[in-house]
Amino acid sequence: MPDLTPRPDSQQPLQPPPNPFGDFPPAQRAAALRVVVADDNPVVRAGLTALLSGREDITVVAEAADGRQACEAAHRHRPDVVLLDVRMPGVDGISALPYLVQIAPVVMLTYSRESEIVQEALRRGAGGYLVHGEFTADQLVDAVRDIKEGRAHFTPTAAGALLTQLRQSQAPAPTPLPEGLGQSSSATAYGIPNSAHSHTQPQQPSGPAPFALPSMPSPPTSSENLSQVQPHVGQSSSGWTSGRPAAPDRSRFQLSTREAEIMDHIASGMTNQQIAATCFISEKTVKNHINRIFAKLHSTSRSEAAAKWIGTASDSRRGLG
Description:
Blueprint: E1 33-38, H1 42-53, E2 58-64, H2 67-77, E3 81-84, H3 93-100, E4 106-110, H4 115-123, E5 128-131, H5 137-148, E6 153-154, H6 156-168, H7 184-188, E7 240-241, E8 244-245, H8 257-267, H9 272-279, H10 283-297, H11 302-310, H12 315-318
Parallel strand pairs: 1-2, 1-3, 3-4, 4-5, 5-6
Antiparallel strand pairs: 7-8
Helix pairs in contact: 2-3, 4-6, 8-10, 8-11, 9-10
């Protein structure tokens, strides 16, 4: 019989081969993106901070309740991205924007969807414009990451405002195209009639010239001067004053800050359920606010209240008596 007794060397554990990459240093973990969140609504700030801080590659280094605090936080923490609301007490987001973009890329994150505000924010250097209710949590996180890399993000309302501006603005002298591009002979050669591409020579509108954003003076260099910057972000416009949209006088309605926020949502066409989700309140609370709003605006329907709020109601319907 063969000898089945194990040999001493067979009881030794097998040794793994040496690691050929053992001399390489361990991989360094990428630094987290540093974000400042600026919004006057503490519930919104807390929600954004919780959402972003839950990602491994993002950390919220500071919160701010107005534009001045946002600038102070940006100077102190030197963030990679700033999330900035438009309408805030004291120094609003549009007024603070030129100062902030000198420190970090800025994304407007707001309920304000008026086209003139979108255009002004982009003119002042915003790297993106996101309207609440038009993006998911993951899309917001992607936007923060992309803005840091210089890739702009816009929600549908902001993109539509930008497209409208491009279509309506006075086009400068056409830039010469590479040879062979844009020639009518190329189209007609494939049977496309001239009328199909007549848009290459747009006719000027017969009405007044499109709204042109005025040039903005250089912002003061001292942070103390921020308190002297007067907010000039208008509500929905009802006309034009000195080249800027004239905002309706809403002070006579005497709405609270929350009621004004909800009235903005009503005017934009949002349902009670959408308003509740956006404002982090119950539908019953929304209905209570709306009842008080209708009483203050002397309105019996959403459409009538919205017309008075945005300034499109006829003179006979605007009165409060």
